[in-house]
Specification:
With 25 residues, this protein is mainly alpha-helical. 92% of the residues lie in helices and 0% in strands. It contains one helix and no strands. The chain is rod-shaped and about 35 Å long. It starts with a helix and ends with a helix.
Length: 25
């Protein structure tokens, strides 16, 4: 279960970073 939470949190961080990059570009 902890691995799933870790994976979900990292996916959320990467999705947020990609959105920020899209706005910056």
């Amino acid at each position: 279960m902890e691995d799933f939470i870790k994976l979900a949190s990292t996916q959320g961080i990467w999705s947020a970073l990609s959105i920020v990059l899209i706005f910056y570009i």
